[in-house]
Amino acid sequence: MKIMTKNEYQAYLKECANRWYTDKSYTKEKFDADLDSVEILDFDLSNFKLDPEIEKWINILFKEEDIDRNGNLMLRGFSRGEMIDVEKLKLHYGEYGRSLSLWAYSDEEMLLYTYCEGDTTLTLFNNPEIYKKNKHEMLEWYKECT
């Protein structure tokens, strides 16, 4: 059993998919077996004060981690409908943007969520002042879009 972070798993998944596409001897059964042989680690969220239920849903809903332009932890995912994410993460809706774009937030957990045509991000904060500043900037940006 291979143990990987979510980012490592996404790279491995792409590698296996490319191999399946280019190598005729690499069958769907081998592809499935390779993916099934991986244990994917949860995100390390120990620097954040999160409700355990919210932390569980973060690990289910998001597939990759990154750092946003301000140095904050940002997780990426894909959703077929933001309402499920917003409900599970106990978020409040912010302003709607154009067409299929929106944001949501949790002042209690200091989370900012965005959704645009299925692509999702969740930015986590452990500093209330930085969270408030980023939330205000997001609110202003969405106000300009509407």
Report on the architecture of this protein:
The mean pLDDT is 92. A hairpin with a 5-residue loop joins strand 3 (62-67) and strand 4 (73-78). The longest helix is centred in the last third of the chain and has 18 residues, at 128-145. Helices cover 42% and strands 28% of the residues. With 146 residues, it is α+β, with helices and mostly antiparallel strands. The chain is elongated, with a radius of gyration of 17 Å. It contains five helices and eight strands, in the order βααβαββαββββα. It folds into two domains: 1-41; 44-145, no CATH class. The chain has helices at 6-22, 28-36, 52-61, 82-88, 128-145; strands at residues 2-4, 38-40, 62-67, 73-78, 92-96, 101-106, 111-116, 119-124.
Whole-number total of structural domains: 2
Largest sheet: 6 strands, antiparallel
| Residue runs with pLDDT of under 50 for 5 or more positions | none
Distance between the termini: 49 Å
Into which percent range does the helicity of residues fall? 40-55%
Specify Rg, calculated over alpha carbons.
17 Å
The fraction of residues assigned to DSSP E strands is: 25-35%
- Averaging pLDDT over every residue, what do you get? 92
Instruction: Give the helix tally.
Output: 5
Structural class: alpha+beta
Strands in their spatial order, largest beta sheet: 3-4-8-7-6-5
Order of helices and strands: EHHEHEEHEEEEH
By DSSP, the count of extended strands is 8
- What best-fitting shape do the alpha-carbon axes yield? elongated
